[in-house]
Specification:
It is a single chain. The protein has about 500 residues and is α+β, with helices and mostly antiparallel strands. It contains 21 helices and 5 strands. It folds into 2 domains: about 425 residues, MFS general substrate transporter like domains (Growth Hormone, Chain: A, Up-down Bundle), CATH 1.20.1250; about 55 residues. Strands 1, 2, 3, 4 and 5 form a 5-stranded antiparallel beta sheet that branches. Strand 2 and strand 3 form a beta hairpin. This is MHS family MFS transporter. Keywords: Cell membrane, Membrane, Transmembrane, Transmembrane helix, Transport. One of its GO terms (cellular component) is plasma membrane.
């Protein structure tokens, strides 16, 4: 039976655990937030799409190794304790993040640059694989059983808040310098990586003062801790069945909903809708700010009515509404469907001519603004043949700045997606904790969580861009991956998950 921690003490536990976990998510996400800039710095020039795909592949690699970190640190957590294990993961994460900020660019050290970044990214992934399970388990084992959803939901906010802090820091740095200074080899984009070492130092100090979880301390005192957590977690049929059910009936769908609502949305706004850098991040910041309280709300609600249907309905809503939401993004900026009044040039057109096989390629870049709030840049490309004739120009809108009504419409559309995230993510920590016995909980819950999030979820941006590149006729083709995965998870969860699990049964 879980012995609840005093109310004042549980909030100290939550604050200490959440602080460290937030910083680890911040470290992990600044790489994704800066993917476009990083692709220029660590890969050769000449093919921007290939460089961005390579950067997103490195980003995804950090997710793919998270299950291995779950096994490594989950085993340590069940053998030596929760506190010291996720203290170790914090040190590894902070060190790797700081060092990424010190790696010279491709122009300085060639192919060694992306190799070093990949290695450090793998260390980040391993560390994060051990962090979440430790923090969620630690908080759950201090909480009274009938409030586990509420208390662990604060840990669930840290991933989104880490993204919020990452966005805020990047915008603050970028606003203080020119684009050229920010994007230079040793420019401002490195500052968020360097800042990590200070944040981690504060978190380590806080975590050093924490005590071991009471449930694990009791097991250890009684000599009942697991001798081989990996074997007990995955070779015992009943427990392994619960691992598979947790993965395919809950966290697989939760993972793709999470990364679609935040990373895919940001990437889509930047690379498809072509919104200006600062405004696309500001849209995401507002949406996150408005949605974050719902993590706690749905965690609290899951204590009252059960975890299952809250999570599954969140997945179903994503399946039903993703394509309409993203269609609305595109139609809102379609130049044939919107009225742009009194357009004026705001900068002298920049013309670049390059020789081609049939003559010369002329690229003209012109910036415009209108009296009803629109601002954008048009890049037109035309081929001038040797006989003097000119082909039809190819036009691309980029760096759009949305007028106020459209800006808030986009905030609403991103908010809806993050609201779906709060439904599936808010209750999931308590759900996973209650599936597994205390002595193998860290290992057993960490693996399905990090496969669902790290592999299925983490691949959303990469697979989305890959599908869009392979099938350019459909700008929404990248959404089919999260839609199919979430739909499959909904069916499995609806058929096989229990809505009520006795919260004391595995303590």
């Amino acid at each position: 039976m879980n012995q609840p921690t005093a109310s004042s003490s549980i909030w100290k536990v939550i604050a200490a655990s959440s602080m460290g976990t937030l910083i680890e998510w911040y470290d992990f996400y600044i790489f994704g937030m800066l993917a476009k800039t990083i692709s220029v710095q660590f890969f050769p020039e000449g093919n921007d799409v290939a460089a961005l795909l390579s950067t997103l592949a490195i980003f995804a690699a950090g997710f793919i190794v998270r299950p291995f970190g779950a096994l490594l640190f989950g085993r340590l957590g069940d053998l030596i304790g929760r506190k010291y294990t996720f203290l170790l993961t914090l040190v590894l994460m902070g060190s790797a993040t700081f060092l990424i900020g010190l790696v010279p660019g491709y122009k300085s050290i060639g192919v060694l640059a992306p190799i070093l970044v990949l290695l450090l990214r793998l260390i980040q992934g391993l560390a994060l694989g051990g962090e979440y399970g430790g923090a969620a388990t630690y908080v759950a084992e201090h909480a009274p059983a009938n409030k586990r959803g509420l208390y662990t939901s604060w840990i669930q906010t840290t991933a989104t808040l880490g993204l919020f802090v990452a966005l805020g820091v990047i915008l603050l740095v970028k606003s203080s310098m020119s684009n050229e200074a920010f994007d230079a080899e040793w420019g401002g984009w490195r500052y968020p990586f360097w800042l990590s070492i200070l944040l981690v130092g504060v978190s380590i100090y806080i975590r050093m003062k924490m005590k071991e979880s009471p449930l694990f301390a009791k097991l250890k005192h009684e000599g009942k801790t697991s001798v081989n957590p990996l074997k007990e977690s995955f070779s015992h049929k009943a427990n392994f069945k619960m691992v598979l059910l947790a993965l395919f009936g809950a966290v697989m769908g939760q993972g793709v909903i999470w990364y679609t609502g935040q990373f895919y949305a940001q990437n889509f706004l930047e690379t498809r809708v072509m919104i200006e850098f600062g405004q696309s991040r500001t849209i995401l910041l507002w949406a996150i700010l408005f949605a974050t309280p719902f993590f706690v709300f749905f965690g609290w609600l899951s204590d009252k009515i059960g975890r299952k249907w809250i999570m599954l309905i969140g997945m179903l809503l994503g399946v039903l509404f993703y394509r309409p939401i993203y269609s609305s993004f595109l139609s809102s900026v379609d130049p044939d469907k919107i009225e742009i009044v009194d357009v004026k040039e705001t900068a002298t057109p920049k013309v670049v001519a390059e020789p081609s096989a049939t003559g010369s390629l002329r690229t003209t870049t012109t910036s415009y603004a209108s009296t009803n709030g629109w601002a954008y840049t048009v890049v037109s490309k035309e081929t001038i043949k040797q006989d003097g004739s000119v082909t039809t120009a190819q036009m691309q809108y980029k760096d759009r700045v949305l007028p106020t009504p459209v800006f808030w419409k986009f905030v609403w559309l991103v908010f809806i997606q993050i609201f779906f995230v709060t439904m599936v993510y808010g209750p999931v920590a308590a759900f996973l904790v209650e599936l597994f016995p205390t002595k193998i909980r860290y290992t057993s819950m960490s693996l399905p969580y990090h496969i669902g999030n790290g592999v299925f979820g983490g691949l959303v941006p990469f697979i989305g861009l890959l599908l869009t590149t392979s099938f350019p006729a459909d700008p929404l083709v990248g959404l089919w991956y999260p839609i199919i995965v979430a739909a499959l998870c909904f069916v499995i969860g609806a058929l096989y998950l229990n809505n009520k699990i006795d919260p004391n049964v595995n303590d």
